[in-house]
Amino acid sequence: MYGCWNSSRSFVEYGFFVPPILSMIGFLGAICMTLTGTDAPKVPAPRQILSTTIYVLELAIVALIYVGLASTAPLFPALNAIETPLWPPSGVALAIMLLRGYCTWPAVFIGSFSASAISVGTVEIQSLAIAGGTTLGALLGTRLINYWSGGTKTLSNPRGIAKFVFIVFIPTGLISAFTASVSRLFADDFNYSTLLASALSWWLADAAASITIAPVIVLWAVPPVQGISKTDLLKTAAIVVTAGVIGALAFTPVTIGAFTNVLPHRALFAFLILLPLMWAVVASNPRAAATAALVFCGFASWGVLGFTLSGSPALNESLFLLLATSITISAAQLYLSTMALVSQQRETYLLSQWSELKISLEQSQMAFKSLKRHYQIFVESVSDHAIFLLNASGHVASWNKTAQQVIGYTAEEIVGKHFSELYRPDERRAGEPNRTLELAGRKGKCQVEGWRIRKNGTPFFVTGVLTAIRDDNRSLIGFASVIRDATERRDTQEQLVEAREQLAMAQKMEAIGKLTGGIAHDFNNLLMIIGGSAQLFKRLLDPKLPRAIEAIQTAAKRGETLTRQLLTFSRRQHLNPTVIDPNLSIKNMHTMIESSLRGNIVYKESLAPDLWPVKVDLAELELAIVNIAVNARDSMPNGGVFTVSAANVTVEHEAEDGQHAVNLVAIEFSDSGTGIPPNLLSKIFDPFFTTKEVGKGSGLGLSQVYGFAHQAGGTVRAESKVGLGTAITMYLPAYAGAEVDAPEPTAADTERTQRPMVLVVDDSPEVAEVASSLFEHLGYDTIYRDSAEAALKLLADGNKVDLIFSDIVMPGTIDGVGLAGEVQSRYPHLPVILTTGYSDAMQTAPPNLPILRKPFDVDALRNCIQGMIGGDTLQ
Predict the structure, then answer these.
(1) What is the pLDDT of residue 152?
(2) Helix (H) / strand (E) containing 194
(3) How many CB atoms are located within 10 Å of the residue 389 CB?
(4) Is residue 144 a contact partner of residue 166, using CB atoms and an 8 Å limit?
């Protein structure tokens, strides 16, 4: 606690006059109180005694050094002649305070005072003033250097050296010289004429001493950060020795025989001092520079002594020249060498930084290569996404293998080109690629979905994202595009949507079919009554009824056609399929088809000669062809061409056990009409859908075609282009190798010598009455029952019956099909004919059981009877 404290702290804060004195007084007082036995504090601790002892020794050593250096002043009469006792000890005082702190001021003060007293021989006020000025100047200089220039570090940079020279030269030197000059006022031999000269000499001498000596002491006392190598020590010794040799040659007053001839010109050797000083600068060695300058200035002082001994009158000029030389050489060389050292340190630092940056760069490059390799492996391992990078302008910068597989371009072909190469030409013209880049750059990413073009020109549908890439400064440096080929998925979705639409359409058609079937069933009963009654009226001889009867029959025929179309569409129409030759059947319809068209429409046929047979209901086929021809006629108001073509086709059919080849006969009906818009093409097979005027069409023509084709086991397709025409194709199952059924001849109504008995069974008396009248017109007797149970009871009673004619749909537990089964079981030789306008139950009827559709006329009834039992069976 009694040692020196940190010199960088304020001496005002710590009270630099108080602590050392108080420490010593307190220590001595404690010892005295202990020796006298008075009530006193405890004996000081050993550490306290040790620190105080060290501090006292330190002060004594500093004072002795100072007194020793100050005692050298009498050796230089020149200095005594102008009374400058402050040099060289002033520089030592400043260096000691810089190194050991403010606490050394007592040693400086005692040393300076002792040296002055010893020099004069007595204690005078002048000695106290000189000691006080030296101490005060050293304290002020140390304080300013510590506060303003970093303390002992002030000599480590050029700016600190400039500050050091300024502080030493102005405030420190002035205060020391001013205090010493004031002390002259108390001298007995005071002379105002010499006061100014003495003050100036003291100021320059004090400044020169501080600038020359203090840096040498501080630099050698403070070890460098990087240490001192042997090489540096050898260089420093060589520089100092060289400076000493040059100083000795130039300024030594001793005459050496070898140099007697050059003695008058030896002052020229002083210029050689530039060599060691520049060597110190080049070597960036401030210690060598400061020490060499000090040695050279010492020999220069020795030269000034020579002038004094020789009694030269130019003493003052030489003294001032010496001081100027000392200040200039010391300050300049110290500044230059320090600047060189700082430059070298900076160079070394920059080189080390460059080496570190180089190593860091190599590591970064290796890391970048590793990341790039990992990125490339990752990108190439993605098998279902095309990944490629774009620069800020949209040009392709990288291209992975999946992109090559999906799009077709190799990396060599596409890298460097604008990514708009992948867009359709119309999108490029519209600026779509640039808009995509702009949107991705503004929002950070942009969802991509649309059609693109492969290298071979084929389109494909893509989905993905385009992401903007930015650096740490948020500057746009490029884009990353990740897309996938979604063509198959899109096709699957479209097929799913189409399948759903077809399912909805099928469900709609099924519902409408059930509705139309039910309507047709009831409507057929009405038509049966109307048509049968009209035939009865026609047999009457009243001449007033023919026109009315013709109108009734025409209406009945139209109603029959309408219900047949409804039943065919609903696929509830019971068909009588036979194996037919499509070529022969279509050719036999030539006249019928032409009559369905107009005179300004040309009818053409293009039929393959080897068409396979088909098994269909010929009447329904003829009706479907007429319906298509009528629609084609209406689509060609200004005339055109209607063509019927047929050919054999084979398609692959998916089944549970795999794919099978299916043989079909394709019958195509094409026209050159106005065509059907795409939004209406899917609706043409809907029932009651028509584009004709009100009253011009029922909307059931093409629905009959649809129902007939599907009920026959086939299908129907339609294609159309507005302005070019429409083509409707029916695909019917082929029966290759089957024999064509020969058409049965129509027999005339033959009178029977014996009238057979027909049992008419129907739940509607009106319908039964009409049917009975038709049978009677053909020469049959009839008996009526309203249910199947009543009919079976009649047969069980033994009544003779030659034919049973029964409706299928009847109330009770047994319908017409059940009645036919019972009759065939009990009376195997009794023929049965069923009739209906609509019934799901007829689907369970045996295939050999004839069914007559309602409504029917006399000819249909005659043909049905003759086709079943022959002409001679019922007599």
Answers:
(1) 82
(2) helix 192-221
(3) 18
(4) no
The span from the CA of 609 to the CA of 587, in Å, is: 12
Q: Model confidence over 500-527: pLDDT tens digits?
A: 777 777 766 666 666 566 566 666 666 6
**484 touches 385 (CB < 8 A):** yes
Residue pair 486/494 in contact (Cβ under 8 Å)? The answer is: no
Residue 731: its pLDDT value, please? Answer: 93
Amino acid type, 59: L
How many CB atoms are located within 10 Å of the residue 212 CB? 25
Nearest to 205 by CA among 176, 241, 230: 176
Locus of tokens 């077809």? 502
> How many CA atoms does the CB half-sphere of 744 hold within 13 Å?
14
What is the reported pLDDT for 13? 35
- Closest to 733 (Cα-Cα) out of 800, 813, 666: 666
Place of tokens 């950070």: 444
> What are the residues whose beta carbons fall under 8 Å from the beta carbon of 691, sequence distance 6 or more?
680
CB 804 within 8 A of CB 791: yes
- 725-733 and 715-721 beta bridge pairing: antiparallel
pLDDT of residue 591: 72
Q: How many CB atoms are located within 10 Å of the residue 583 CB?
A: 17
Please tell me the distance from the alpha carbon of residue 671 to that of residue 644, in angstroms, as a whole number: 9
Q: How far apart are CA 532 and CA 552, in angstroms?
A: 10
Rounded Cα gap, residues 78 and 306, in angstroms: 9
Residues 70 and 85: their CA atoms lie apart, in Å, by 7
Query: Hey, what amino acid is at 369?
Result: K
Strand partners, 661: 652
Query: For residue 277, what are its two tokens?
Result: 């000083």
**Helices 192-221 and 286-310, packing angle to 10 deg:** 150
Judge whether 600 and 638 are in contact, CB under 8 Å: yes
Token pair of 690 as six digits: 């028509």
Residue 777 makes CB contacts below 8 A (sequence gap 6+) with: 535, 539, 858
Helix, strand, coil share of the chain (percent; to 5): 60, 15, 25
Low-confidence residues of the chain, pLDDT below 70?
Answer: 1-45, 66, 69-88, 116-124, 183-195, 225-227, 253-267, 303-326, 507-527, 529, 533-575, 595, 599, 654-658, 688-689, 691-700, 741-754, 838-844, 869-875
Backbone angles phi, psi at 97, to 5 degrees: -70, -35
Q: Is the Cβ–Cβ distance between 827 and 844 less than 8 Å?
A: no
What's 545-585 look like in SS3? CHHHHHHHHHHHHHHHHHHHHHHHHCCCCCCCCEEECHHHH
DSSP state of 255: -
Q: For residues 391 and 611, what is the distance between their CA atoms, to the nearest angstrom?
A: 64
The secondary structure of 448-473 as a DSSP string is EEEEEE-TTS-EEEEEEEEEEEE-TT
* 3-state SS, residue 719: strand
- CA distance linking residue 429 with residue 442, whole number of Å: 22
Q: Strand 803-807 and strand 832-836: pairing?
A: parallel
Name residue 781's amino acid.
D
CB half-sphere exposure, 43, CA atoms < 13 A: 5
Q: How far is CA 174 from the centre of its chain?
A: 75
How far is the C-alpha of 554 from the C-alpha of 547, rounded, in Å? 11
How far is the C-alpha of 367 from the C-alpha of 115, rounded, in Å? 72
Under a CB-based contact definition with an 8 Å cutoff, are residues 231 and 279 in contact?
no
Count of CB atoms situated within 10 Å of the CB of 811: 10
Q: Report the predicted TM-score, pTM, of the whole model to 2 decimal places.
A: 0.42
Decide if 497 contacts 823 (C-beta within 8 A): no
Q: What is the pLDDT of residue 73?
A: 52
For the chain, the first-to-last Cα distance in angstroms comes to 158
Q: How many residues does the chain have?
A: 875
Q: Letter for the amino acid at 178?
A: F
